[in-house]
Design a protein that fits this description.
With 424 residues, this protein is α/β, with parallel strands linked by helices. The protein is built from 12 helices and 13 strands.
Amino acid sequence: MTQSLDETVAAGMRRLAADLGKLVAIPSVSAPGFPPETQPALLEAYAAVAELFRAEGVEQLGSLELPDTAPILTGAIPAPPGAPTVLLYSHYDVVAAGDESEWTSPPFVATERDGAIFGRGTADTKSNILVHVGALRAWGGRPPVGVKLLIEGQEEVGSPLEEGYPSAHPEHFEADAILVADGGSIHSGQYGGAAPDALVALLSALATLWDDTGDVAVEGLRREEWTGETYTDDEFRKLAEIEEGLPIVGTGGLGSKIWSGPSITVLGIDCPAVDGASASIQAHARALLNVRVHPEQPAAEAQAAVVRHLEAQRPFGIRLAVTAGATGDGFRARSSGPAWEAMVAAMATAWGSDVVEIATGGAIPLVKAIGDALPDAALFVFGATDSFANIHGPDERVLLDEWEKAVLAEALFFQELADRSGGG
């Protein structure tokens, strides 16, 4: 059966690429509240995705309508007798293209070059919708497991399925395995050197968040050494585009720096641009921070620690106003059980190599919410997006080879899970 699936998936990739081109051409950019200007493209994407799944045997299609959000596609293929059920999740919305001059090819035209397809949403996450479609297509719409669908259209701006929804409505999520395929100013010449400068004060406070080695210096943030596989230093330098001669900051192993320990990133600072800046002291300044936390530390607890740290700072005697933003808890998957073994076997076959366990930064709050609501379900964040896919940036792309392997792995997973559950 493996060889047959391999051949079927390979033969179907051109058709999937054509499907991806049609989805990328729909500029399904979401915005909070599902405002009218976003609705035509999002509804077009919803309809296109629904038709793709209908054509592959998902006949029990429905729409989950929640307030102020794009419709959520639901659907099911009943399980064969004694077989488990797999929930397939993804999202059809994308982020805006940004400055289109930074793109090599038009963002909403799927363009194939150098073994990849470029375009907004190719990696995040329309190719992953098509991983689900391709896996069902490989089985002719009759997989050896039951299938449930949950494909939403607001993930990029805050999923309506977060914040306790899975616990309140578990019927939409119940499955044996879940595949989650995504200021006045003061003139400086007159008063500089004595008048308090808000920007200097802010920078001084921000600098206390790290010690001299680059480790986060906020008391109360959990860190432990990572014991699984991780990148080599050379691999990470290439991935993070660290220029030659610059250090990898922090102490300890690389895994604890980027996965099992905290990190704080300054996402933006409001301050005058260098070009056109006037000779003035800044009366107001603000910054936006992102804090990545240990996957098992509650995000609210970690956020409170950072807020306490910043509120305790008094640069030049100036008090900072610190405002807490939205949080999302991390998630640590259970790496045992029949579904885990099935996924390891499927991925090993699809990629032709041993499977190793790593972690990843970048929380998907829905994953934590589903994990809390359905602790017995095996939960996998899965798909075709590699570390260099440039999601949310210019020249986003999905590698054709990686994409094909992901489709094959999901198709194989259906059989591996059925066999291990007595339903194959």
